Amino acid sequence: MKKLLVLATGGTIASTHQRGGLAPGLTIDQLAQYFHHNQDVSVDFKVLMNKDSTNMQPEDWVVMARAIDENQNAYDGFIMTHGTDTMAYTASALSYLLHDIKKTVVITGSQVPVSFKKTDARKNIRDALTFAHQADIPGVFIAFDGKAIQGTRAVKMRTKSYDAFESVNFPYIAAIGEFGAQITFRPEPEKTVFRKHLGVCPDVFLLKAFPGLAPQFFDYLQDHIKGLIIESFGNGGLPFLTRDLVSGIEKLVQKGIPVIITTQCLEEGQNMDLYEVGKRVADAGGITAGDMNTEAIVAKLMWVLSQTTDPSEIRRMIQTPLAHDLDYI
Ligand SMILES: NC(=O)C[C@H](N)C(=O)O
Asked: Residue 249 gets which letter from DSSP?
């Protein structure tokens, strides 16, 4: 008989109407009532926290990872109930913190509380149970709206619709329904060269470039952060005329602060060698993050920075595929 552990963290799925608005309010026993399963699975429950995922912090990822790591040998799979707002960040973070996991970790939640009459929660719970039970793929996944998504590739696209998440730049892993879990893409096992490390350094900043962004902000950032991620335009380009952001990047890099470059375009990654505006960013020391999602870059950079401050090692680790986060640079 397979043994699964459900870890509750809060989110809409466990929310109830409260004076200040919807907030996690179900007890673990109340939540457990919605986990219907057949006789050949045994399910245990544990509360890790009871937060709207907007309140999740990087330190919470470490708590989650430890809880799974400590129980790795006692269970065949894990289900985590979680709010949708930061679920993609958590899925990425756990993918790095637990990159050597041999079991399936499924994160799910819902757009509507489980106790409401019309809700997506009960289907998502059933699908998470099905996937955790049937899929023999190690790693961290999101199960939502009948699909399983690789943890490092999920992006929340919609605030209300049941199909809140999409798999970006990567195939869906499975279709899930009453018929079971039909694996549609089985990722090749990775030969990872990374050490196990259950820590994060939250001192990073994420900047979305826009026409008119003043380079003076970089002067402030250099004294307050250990790593910067810039969502550039298109193929990794940033302005060097009038408001010269490229020189700003160069200054940060010279101070030993890694600057990771991604793109505001969700799909197809970037090619910084194509245009002068991208090449200059690369020449200034900007580190391309290829086709990784911003959520994954944030989590990976925090994980990497808690292990090293060496710029070339940071570049190497960011650009080495891990947990299927990256297909090309
Ligand atoms: N649908 C949800 O779960 C949204 C909620 N604010 C959360 O992230 O916890």
From this structure: H
